[in-house]
Amino acid sequence: MHYPVTRLRRLRRNAALRDMVRETILTRHDLIMPLFVCPGKGVNNPISSMPGNSQLSVDFLVEKGKELFDQGVQSVLLFGIPESKDETGEVACQHNGIVQQATRALKKEVPDLYLIADICNCEYTTHGHCGTIVDGDVDNDQTLETLAKQSVSLAEAGIDMVAPSDMMDGRVGAIRTALDNNGFHNLPIMAYSAKYASAFYGPFREAAESAPQFGDRKTYQMDPANGDEALREVALDIQEGADIVMVKPALNYMDIIHRVKTSFNMPVAAYNVSGEFSMVKAAAAKGWIDEKRIVHELLTGLKRAGADLIISYHTQDIIQDL
Fold first, then answer.
1. Where along the chain is the active site annotated (predicted)?
2. Is 253 known as a binding-site position?
């Protein structure tokens, strides 16, 4: 059929009709808010490059968790800034590690808030890389040991899900085995399966104090030019036991999100990362864009591309509109 028999504008005539035929609907259930926890008490350290976000001590993090939950946020992703660092990230495996403390406190005070822990070593190592350094590069298999120990320690603290972000080969299998061997058969894994060596992470490295002290992360994070490789990474993580797979960053990688969703029909998460967030905030501060409309459009675009879950620093800004 064609014009004038077919007039596509008929279904756009008013808001009620547009709502009825809307294909993609963003809901509060889709969103996960990242949070940064640091040592001390009464600490609220604003992150200059990420307006509205702060490093929070455990007491303030609990208050933030209550506020988010009351506003309708169901899940948060926790990142830790430790009191001290070491060469291997072993500090992240301690019973009283900073994210372990935060997990216990949040579970006590906001028990229905779903807690996901980022599993990586970059915030916990003196050199800022995601694992143990041998001969100037991250040693893959030694790093798996600390990642598995960190996951078990957080499971013991009461975390609801672990999310390995390191991009080591075999880490999902190592974590799944360690969790199962310690009785945590039902604890899910959300794997950062296609994580690119992106320029969009800059503000996060200020927030998590995790910038590498030498070199870069190109030997373990993916080349932004590659798409087929992402599917191989995702396939391996699924084989090793990932329950949810993730693409990171999000906006420049909507094609990867779509390919992953259509290829595997698995739950897919998209991480709307710090650089993507900060660009919107900077343009809005200049009055160049309508921030709320932009955010709704970009998050809806991620869901339309195939994302089931969206990790975004915009979550609190828009949650009450959903």
1. 195, 248
2. no
166: nearest Cα among 200, 212, 199, 214: 212
Q: What is the per-residue pLDDT across 185-216, written as a single tens digit (0 to 9) for each? A: 999 999 999 999 999 998 888 877 777 787 78
312 annotated as ligand-binding:
no
SS3 call for 16: helix
Candidates 133, 132, 131, 98; CA nearest to 117 is: 98
How long a stretch of residues is the chain? 322
Is residue 10 domain-resident? no
Q: Output the pLDDT for position 130.
A: 82
How far apart (Å, rounded) are the C-alpha atoms in residues 299 and 307?
Answer: 9
Q: How do 268-272 and 244-248 pair as beta strands?
A: parallel
CB of 154 closer than 8 Å to CB of 130: no
Domain assignment present for residue 164? The answer is yes
Asked if residue 14 is part of any domain, the answer here is no
User: Is 38 annotated for ligand binding?
Assistant: no
CA distance 295 to 49: 18
Q: What CATH number does residue 316 fall under?
A: 3.20.20.70
pLDDT of residue 152: 98
Range of the domain at 62: 23-321
Neighbours of 96 (CB within 10 A): 9
Q: Which amino acid is at 57?
A: S
For residue 115, the SS3 value is strand
Query: Annotated binding residue at 130?
Result: yes
Q: Of 172, 173, 155, 168, give the one whose Cα is nearest residue 117.
A: 155
The total of structural domains in the chain comes to: 1
Torsion angle of alpha carbons 194, 196, 200, 204, nearest 10°?
A: 70
Successive 10-residue mean pLDDT values, the chain, 322 residues:
92 96 96 97 96 97 98 97 90 95 98 97 85 88 95 98 96 98 98 97 82 81 97 98 98 98 97 97 98 97 98 96 92
Confirm or deny that 217 is annotated as ligand binding. Answer: yes
User: Is 83 annotated as contributing to ligand binding?
Assistant: no
Residues designated catalytic: 195, 248
- 6 domain-assigned: no
